[in-house]
Amino acid sequence: MKWKVLINPFEKYSERSLLIFGSAFTFFGSVVAYWMKARFNGVFDMYLVENLRFIEPLIDNFINIATLVLLFILLGKYINHKTRWVDILSVAIVARAPFYLLPLFNIGGVLEKSLKSLLSEIDFQNLSNPPAIELSDVWIILVFSGISILCVVWFIMLFWNGFRVATNTKGMKNVILFIVLFAVSEVVSKILISIFNS
Amino acid sequence: MNVKLPVLCPSCAEKLSVSELVCSGCTTKVSGNFPLPVLLSLSAEEQNFILEFFLSSGSLKEMAKKLGNSYPTVRNKLDDLIEKVKQLNL
Description:
The complex is a heterodimer.
Chain A: H1 4-7, H2 15-35, E1 38-39, E2 47-48, H3 55-79, H4 85-95, H5 110-121, H6 135-167, H7 172-196
Antiparallel strand pairs in A: 1-2
Helix pairs in contact in A: 2-3, 2-4, 3-4, 3-7, 4-6, 5-6
Chain B: E1 17-22, E2 29-35, H1 44-55, H2 60-67, H3 71-89
Antiparallel strand pairs in B: 1-2
Helix pairs in contact in B: 2-3
């Protein structure tokens, strides 16, 4: 079943292959983000900026991956002392790959223009005034939102499947700990990026 | 035909034991009630896994390569099997 590779490559592929592919995804994802003027200011986030330096998306991704690895190795070791760093690292860098597709929505600045045009039409002082919104802008933002949600779901599926393989976790208690730590990792990565890369 | 050794009773799911052994040379039969060894109580797939582990000199990395799986997948399989054998031994 080849589709399984898309949601759980961790059962089959060695940590070496996963690290090579994951590093390539991270590097090219950061380069594409630079071209499309996108930042990843949290484990689950992407937003567009006016100006950015080449190094910024790379540092964002480094902080996001480091946060995931540091938090989830602790949970991994708690669940199963045989959990290896290298497996958690492979999971963190491969699972984030779906996010690197999102900046492609801004080819030619399409997404940025639609967002600006939509926001400029809304009168925030008087919200009862109906804004003259372009239908094409609404469609672009709706499609982007839909695909963003799919990418988040894909990321979570990849991360959970990888974590399950790396730790051999079983039982509901560990699922709850995983969900809580996932939320914590978003907060921690946002704080770290705001301190070190803003 | 690859005949599978039944280890559980098809009627009540209790563990089966051996009641008769036959010499393939002179057909002498030995009757009694012999419990199945733990290894034979495992499924054919699990027995093959243990055999592969033995033939790979206990190297999980080697086994992962042979089976075309990742290292943690093979290690998890082994851990689950160890747990199952412990349960069977109780």
